[in-house]
Amino acid sequence: MKRIHTTALALLAIGQTMAQAPATAKDPIPAIVSDPMTYIVVITMAILLATVLVLVNVVRRLVYSIAGPSPIVAKPEVNIPAKNEKPSVFSRLNTWLSDSVPVEKEADVLLDHNYDGIKELDNNLPPWWKYGFYITILFAFLYMAHYHVVGSGNVQVDEYNKQLADAEIAKQEYLEMTAAQVDENTAAFLAEASDLGEGKKIFMDKCKVCHGAGGEGSVGPNLTDDYWIHGGDIKDVFKLVKYGFPSKGMLAWQGQLSPVQIQQVSSFVKSLYGTNPANPKAPQGELYKENISNGATVDSTQTDSMSVENPSTHTATL
Question: What's the rounded Cα separation, in Å, for the pair 144 and 141?
């Protein structure tokens, strides 16, 4: 019996250790503590453990009643002083959990029922079962009040919607993190209206003075035609905005704009293609064809290496 008790305590200790979850910085309380399912599992394990203990005790009594007491072997009398031994903690706990009548007193709870020699005892319900049943009733009322009456807890639909909202926040944080890592090798055209709007604000603030409000060109070249001096791919535009071209007056904006802002303004510059503003400047650079499909600008390869640079213009260029 002591081995069974020791094993049961070891299993409970292992289960408690495995159930622990690390706390995060955002949530100082571990999720396992705030999850009602944890307490259901713990209570269920306790009930199962008590059931095992009671079943072991029942089996022992059954074996004793079938086999009967062991034969007594006569031994020489030895005068040993009687010891007043107290029952162990586990013995008292087992007695309390089962509330059973000792075998020698079963005649006191024997009923008149007799089915083919099988007799019935009027034992009390085990306290562990009875109080466990009361606890489940209390838990049911608390659960209903918490989730469906007071509404202080989230039902499954609310938890699902909250998880979706948290996932969306995590997604936006990830996108912002990856966007901040963009460079001339990974830059892509941003077709979202919000990005193009931010790019337009930057263009009007920092680029309009040289390239005109509509990209028609002034000191700098025309940004709306098919000709580009340093390449018309979005990556080429990003690289030029980032590092500039000081010998022709094009500033390097990497010290004043973030990678995200550079990508936004580069995308806005690409969106100016084909807008045909008033008073466009004469073409400069090499012919670069690009296709517009599904509302997004898709750059093609260079189709003509013909140079039409204006020799009299050596200013800020794209």
Answer: 5
Which domains does the chain possess?
A: 2-69+85-149 (no CATH), 193-299 (1.10.760.10)
At residue 74, the pLDDT reads 52
Q: What is the pLDDT of residues 169-185, one digit of tens each?
A: 998 888 777 667 788 88
Amino acid at position 89, single letter: V
HEC profile for the chain?
CHHHHHHHHHHHHHHHHHCCCCCCCCCCCCHHHHCHHHHHHHHHHHHHHHHHHHHHHHHHHHHHHHHCCCCCCCCCCCCCCCCCCCCCHHHHHHHHHHCCCCHHHHHHHEEEEEECCEEEECCCCCHHHHHHHHHHHHHHHHHHHHHHHCCCCCCHHHHHHHHHHHHHHHHHHHHHHHHCCCCCCCCCCCCCHHHHHHHHHHHHHHCHHHHCCCCCCCCCCCCCCCEECCCCCHHHHHHHHHHCEHHHCECCCCCCCCHHHHHHHHHHHHHCCCCCCCCCCCCCCEECCEEEECCEEEECCCCCCCECCCCCCCCCCC
Query: What pLDDT score was predicted for residue 23?
Result: 42
pLDDT mean for each 10 residues of the chain (318 residues): 51 48 49 73 86 81 66 55 69 79 81 81 85 92 88 84 92 76 86 92 90 88 88 89 86 88 91 88 84 44 36 39
